[in-house]
């Protein structure tokens, strides 16, 4: 990491979107991020919440879950326990490798690719029961406990689009940490 809080993060291995409500999202050649909205054409894009459970609670809340990022390393981890998961299977928009997404603080900026797209990390994905409908027992693999008993959410991170642009597999990720004390991610 450089002295200004910037460092190379990793690489995008897949991008996914779906215009209809479905747990999985098909992989695409590219996705377009729209500032303040999310992934163009994706069912979860919008200024206000789009996830069904959140809409039922309060449809006027801001959408802090515009873009879902997940680390490919999780797929290998659950694969060791007999589960088969591929990019887009768990509903993420951007699948990464080489970056510890879960360790990033709230407010981290992720510069995705060369087209200028920037997302701001808002928090952790809160995995839901749909994961067990996808593969029975998988939820226990992405929600666990650490040695102190605290809940650990491994289902990726959520973000909002600050600057739009096209994102493709193979694109680099540049990480810019926020100034000041770093606030650990919480579920959003």
TrEMBL record:
GO molecular function, one term: catalytic activity
Identification of the protein by name: MOSC domain-containing protein
PANTHER family in alphabetical order: METAL-SULFUR CLUSTER BIOSYNTHESIS PROTEINS YUAD-RELATED, MOSC DOMAIN-CONTAINING PROTEIN
Alphabetical list of PROSITE patterns matching this protein: MOSC
SUPFAM superfamilies named in the record: PK beta-barrel domain-like
Species annotation: Streptomyces antnestii
InterPro entries the UniProt entry points to: MoCF_Sase_C, MOSC_domain, Pyrv_Knase-like_insert_dom_sf
Location of the MOSC domain: 25-176
UniProt cross-references to Pfam families, sorted A to Z: MOSC (PF03473)
């Amino acid at each position: 990491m450089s002295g200004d809080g910037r460092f190379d993060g990793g690489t995008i291995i897949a991008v996914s979107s779906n215009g209809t409500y479905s747990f999985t999202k098909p992989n695409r050649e590219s996705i377009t991020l729209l500032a303040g909205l999310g992934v163009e054409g994706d069912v979860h894009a919008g200024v206000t919440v789009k996830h069904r459970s959140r809409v039922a609670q309060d449809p006027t809340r801001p959408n802090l879950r515009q873009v879902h990022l997940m680390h490919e390393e999780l797929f290998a981890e659950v694969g060791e326990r007999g589960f088969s998961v591929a990019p887009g299977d768990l509903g993420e928009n951007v699948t990464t490798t080489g970056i510890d997404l879960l360790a990033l603080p709230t407010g981290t900026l992720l510069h995705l690719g060369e087209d200028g797209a920037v997302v701001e990390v808002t928090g952790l994905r809160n995995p839901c029961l749909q994961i067990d409908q996808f593969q029975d027992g998988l939820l226990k693999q992405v929600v666990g406990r650490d040695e102190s008993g605290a809940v650990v959410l491994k289902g990726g991170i959520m973000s909002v689009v600050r600057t739009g642009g096209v994102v493709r597999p193979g694109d680099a990720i540049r990480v810019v940490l926020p100034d000041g004390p770093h606030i650990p991610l919480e579920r959003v």
